[in-house]
Amino acid sequence: MITDDIEVIDYSNSVEQLLAPFAGVLGQDYDGYRGHIYRNLTYTLHFLDGDETFRPEIEAALVYHHIGLWTHSTLHYVKPSLERFGRDSRRFGWDLDNILVWDIIQWHHKLFWYRGPNADVINAVRKADWVDASGGRIRKGLSSEQVRLVRDAIPEAGFQKALRRMSRELKGGNWANDLVWMCLKVQKL
Question: How many separate domains does the chain show?
Answer without folding.
Answer: 1
